[in-house]
Design brief:
Immunoglobulin-like; 5-stranded mixed sheet; alpha+beta
Amino acid sequence: MRYARLFAVSLAVLLIGYGLIAAAEPTVITLTQTGCQFLEPEGKDHEFKTQAAADCTAINKQNGDERLNASTPLELKPGKYIFRVTNQNVPYELGFYLRGTDLGRLTLPKVSGGGLTTGQTQDYHIDLKAGSYVYSCPLNPTPDYSLVVKP
């Protein structure tokens, strides 16, 4: 029985490798950044005018907690994802940072990167495990939006 399972797994790996059967495609999650925020969790564009990250630090100090409390957490199942992030209109370089919270910060997968200039879209690949995460942009300081992964 053990050899039959090993054979089946080996055959599946070969078939996927040669493109004869398809591996599960990652799910694409689209996120849009404007000044000091991601549009999707907040549900609207606050139309903050920013020229530098310091502008967002000041704006978030005034209303970031209130906006975060009103935001919609993202709920997903474990699996492979592509977070497709667009810099809609921010006049400086942005990035994306998704990581676990609390102890999950040490044990859960994370993804990050920068180089997202005005009008550009970039993909961030991750295989999410069950747990609690946050995502944000440290270069366009946004709140830490909630993401929960449950089976």
